[in-house]
Amino acid sequence: MWQVRGQDKILALLNHSLEEQNIAHAYLLVGPSHVGKRTLALNLAQALNCNDPHPPCGQCRSCRRIIEGKHADVTVIDLDLCRRISKETDPEDTISRTQIGISCIKELQRLANLPTYEGRYKVFIFEEAESLSTAAANSLLKILEEPPPNVVWLLLSAEERRLLPTITSRCQRLELKPMPEKQLKQTLTEFYNIEPDKAELLAHLCHGRLGWVLSALADDGILFQRSQTIDRLISLLTASLGQRFAYAQELAAQFSQERKPVMEIMEIWLSWWRDLMLIKSKCKEAITNTDYEAVLEKQASNLCPSEINNFTNNLLLTEEQIYRNVNARLAFESLMLNMPKIPLRAKRGNHNG
Length: 353
Ligand SMILES: [Zn+2]
What we know:
Layout: H1 8-20, E1 26-30, H2 37-49, H3 61-67, E2 74-77, H4 79-89, H5 102-112, E3 122-126, H6 134-145, E4 151-157, H7 165-168, E5 172-175, H8 181-191, H9 196-205, H10 210-218, H11 220-236, H12 241-257, H13 259-280, H14 293-301, H15 305-323, H16 328-337
Parallel strand pairs: 1-4, 1-5, 2-3, 3-4
Helix pairs in contact: 2-3, 4-5, 5-6, 8-9, 10-11, 11-13, 12-13, 12-16, 13-14, 13-15, 15-16
The protein binds zinc ion.
Residues 46, 50-52, 55-57, 60, 62-63 line the site of zinc ion.
């Protein structure tokens, strides 16, 4: 049984392709982070190698070995694995912390050309395909142009626009959509026995991404980190420029080590400023961060719509700049400069002080 939920159209298409044995040699799985791309990729790897009449059964030896990460023909490629491969195969290759290098792709190409070891298909899953360096992407392109038989490449990306069009055009594109909030809340209460109140808050926070909720339920740290990010954001609104710049420097240093946590912070910021705009527009019921409603209302009363709008645009611009590898520290400093400032003893409302 497919484990991914809320992606019925994609599953119907894949079931049909499996029945017809009409499998593409490369798929591009796109959608926001935690929407289910990795689950779907592993499920597809299972389906391609499953021995049950209704694949993926999830129970046979092959299906179990894939989920446990032990199957010899299924490789999940993340930045850590790439760094290890590069170190072993080509010590000359400049190893970047944030990019997949060409030596890694060359090694994968060698592996792809070997016969399968225990399954029918070799499957290579790229967790963050947007991290391919240009040289690595061009090397992969050559493989996709002359694909070895019984090899399937799965490229996962939350940032599709950062992929080379020559790569994306060689893949069958599968777009995973966030689940509607109602359906997600229902899934949480019915399949995962979450209490209705908690399910409602989580469904609100996750923007339709079931994977985010499941990670948050499995790891208290995720919700803790979210509240830490929000507390920091709240304090920055009244902070001095020096404190803001110190934070910009912190973000840039973190970004140079690992992109993902910083992108998640930016996402929380965007949801916060969107909430402020919703409150200003008298659409309080649509806000995401419902557990911070009182703080949001207080802040909104001290900001005017143009300030909120301008800063939201600044956030989007910063995201775009760091995608494009503009000096991250400059980008974050400029963001901090443009953040509206709420005086420490701000009045509580627009009227009557
Ligand atoms: Zn199976």
